[in-house]
Automatic annotation (TrEMBL):
InterPro entries named among the record's database cross-references: Kazal_dom, Kazal_dom_sf, MFS_trans_sf, OATP
Native source organism of the sequence: Acinonyx jubatus (Cheetah)
Gene name tied to this protein: SLCO1A2
SUPFAM superfamilies (alphabetical): Kazal-type serine protease inhibitors (SSF100895), MFS general substrate transporter (SSF103473)
Similarity comment: Belongs to the organo anion transporter (TC 2.A.60) family.
Listed name of the protein: Solute carrier organic anion transporter family member
Entry's transmembrane regions: 60-80, 87-106, 223-251, 271-295, 346-368, 383-405, 541-565, 586-608, 628-652
Family annotation (PROSITE patterns): KAZAL_2
Annotated Basic and acidic residues bias: 672-699
Extent of the signal sequence: none
Subcellular location: Cell membrane
Amino acid sequence: MAENEKRIKTHRIRCLSKMKMFLLAITCAFVSKTLSGSYMNSMLTQIERQFNIPTSLVGFINGSFEIGNLLLIIFVSYFGTKLHRPILIGVGCVVMGLGCFLQSLPHFLMERLSSYIWWFLVIYTYLRERNNTSYLELLCIYEYESTVSVSGNLSSNSFLCMENGTQIIRPTEDPSECVKEVKSLMWMYVLVGNIIRGIGETPIMPLGISYIEDFAKSENSPLYIGFVETGAIIGPLFGLSLASFCANVYVDTGSVNTDDLTITPTDTRWVGAWWFGFLICAGVNALTAIPFFFLPKWLPKEGLKSNADIIKNDKEEKQREEVKKKKDGITKDFLPFMKSLLCNPVYMLFILISIIQFNAFVNMFTFMPKYLEQQHGKSASDVIFLIGIYNLPPICIGYVAGGLIMKKFKITVKQAAHIACWLSLTEYLLHFLCFLMICDNSSVAGITTTYNGMQQDLYMENAILADCNRDCNCPTKTWDPVCGNNGVSYMSACLAGCETSVGAGINMVFQNCSCIQTSGNSSAVLGLCDKGHDCSMMLQYFLILSAVGSFIYSLSAIPGYMVLLRCIKPEEKSLGVGLHTFCTRVFAGIPAPIYFGALVDSTCLHWGTLKCGESGACRIYDSANFRYIYLGLPAALRGLSYIPAFLILNILKNRHLPGENASSGTMLTEAKTTKKESECKDMDQNSKVLNDNELKTKL
């Protein structure tokens, strides 16, 4: 008798500790995976500038994560429940760390290869054109319009107006002189690394959620999932903080003297130390994997309090293992489960809603830093930091609050569907206020305004030259902007008509600028002109509205997710979550950044130029068209998603869902548990009188 009681007490302690340990481990896994994901999204602009690639290609690189994810999501979701789920999650974390490490490799490879090819160019050009090209000219030709070299960002006398002179820095058009960029294909490492990171992330979501649903009490499940989703918000908080720090550090820090730089973090040619954060993410993912290798394959159902329940659960576990061993294979129920899910109208409509809304949110989150940079003229570091401060805490609070509400008030599936729908609709209507928070285009002579300061039609290349700089023989594709003391920006000091310069580095000042029309001495400084106080206030209003909307939408996230979990049968839960994730990856995660990036590229007003005359990364966008695409397209998509949402509410009126037994029968279960507890107490009191045989009969 004493031995039996000791075993039961040990069983309870082990069940409690293992469940809490898994909850802590899976929360850390969500933190690490979202840390990597948020950092990747925040560094897209830096990667675009580093490799001089268009936004559509950057969108494809970002969507490659979903490609890696969907390669295994269905199989992991179904077969994972038959295998050791914690170990599979641990292996996934290790693979994610490997992918992050691979993404950082281009920085180290480019630095080594660049030195080799640079010396090759020096020797080759010296032998061919020993009498025509100087060492400095060769250096400038090699790094023309570069985003990572100090020499390529120099605003020196080479860009000043020299009447009847010849500019030495021009894109070479001679194929024999045109050498392929060392970093031109290095973005492939980032692409492959992102695919591997997506493969590693595959088991975390479906297997982690199904593990909680299988072994947690039904009324505790929403709260636990709320904690896990909170981890998915804490991760981006750290990820955005890390990205803000790295974006403010020059990419080649340590190998160049940053005091000689002529660009600042607000410049569109600035490239932050994007590679450093990937190394940190790799280490965090590897450390997160360790606890999962020490967790059991199965746990007793949480909340079993009576002796009979615990003994019965042990027998059920043994029977379940025996039945699994007798099965011919683990694919026996796959097709029936798939058929059942595809014939479930609530589940399929929920997938349709998720696909449409994910298309909207993927676009907004992926390109939010770029949008705020271009719209409000802030640096990437400042924008990333503000996004983290304003948006992530409200989302975190909303997730926890949603889980607590579900637990405290014992919300049914039908009630949860109504809560999720109406809260989401409220946030959607608030989104339209963002259209009022606008900033005008930066005033750049020859692109958005004339040299007289008047607004002009956009996309007019022939307006870059004017009478004041026509004799300067300026390169028309060079982007080395200066801000005149008349409040107008110019593409370069040469196009501003500046003849002299004083100072060095970022303190350089250009003087005697013929295109700058002022009453006094005409001068210009490096960089675009500031957009002013009003535009900064619009940014604050936008972020405040974004914070309110994030809280409301996150408050509806847990009730909405419980509709997904409770509209399918318990044995189909893991496959259902995996299929849902698969569909959102295929129809939203992969295509959305690509087509949205192509639309963003269509608003570009001036492209950077490589030394061979090819287009690089975009330097300035049409703010108005960018705003219409960034805010209008997601609004249209989300509006369509409410049609299937209302259909779900209509179906749920007269439909009994498989998961409703768990939630609606909570009170009955608690009553039975209380009764069993009282019976166990009576047995413990009588055990002092009864002998062992009588006690066994009583049990």
